[in-house]
Amino acid sequence: MGDFRAGERVRVRAGDPAGHTRVPRYVRGQVGRIVESQGRWALADEVAAGVAEPRVEAVYTVAFAARDLWGEGDHEVTVDLWESYIERARRAEA
Amino acid sequence: MSRVNDVGGQTGFGALRIEADEPPFHADWEARVFALNSVLVRNGVYRLDEFRDAVERMDPRQYLATSYYERWLIAIETLLAERKVLADG
């Protein structure tokens, strides 16, 4: 996982964590496109849970087609997502 | 499970009210709550993501019945009580 490049297709993990997360429900399980890296940041889920030394991971801006999320709309929706929220999309999904 | 704050894409909350020339704060107490939170985060009493978590941990009925900065104040009180900075009650 990780080291994604602009243009790569990724799927957002579908899990629904018990605590704080920065994954909006509407992108879970969805396939999007890496736009750019935003550098490395402490994983918000672990910071929120009080972990003393939270994981530091790459954060990516990921673009989704509004139509994929809501069935309508011709625009894109971009969400900044930590590396552990996403995985490389399978070839058939890309 | 998904919390009450995660309403993106949901309907039923009415239209967004967009104010022309909206001020940063609608009342002085809101500015004080904003400043208080900044001071507490900068002094390491809690971290910003812990604050966001505290907002999301609110009772959903209370969350939906309160304004933006009322939620901030409730979350600040929750965290200060949990860290024994404030006495219970």
TrEMBL record, chain A:
This is Nitrile hydratase beta subunit domain-containing protein. It comes from the Bacteria. Pfam families: NHase_beta_C (PF02211). It comes from Streptomyces gilvosporeus. Residues 3-87 form the Nitrile hydratase beta subunit domain. Transmembrane segments: none annotated. The lineage of its organism: Bacteria, Bacillati, Actinomycetota, Actinomycetes, Kitasatosporales.
From TrEMBL, chain B:
It comes from the Bacteria. It comes from Streptomyces gilvosporeus. InterPro entries: CN_hydtase_beta-like_N, CN_hydtase_beta_C, Elect_transpt_acc-like_dom_sf. Residues 1-87 form the Nitrile hydratase beta subunit-like N-terminal domain. This is Nitrile hydratase beta subunit-like N-terminal domain-containing protein.
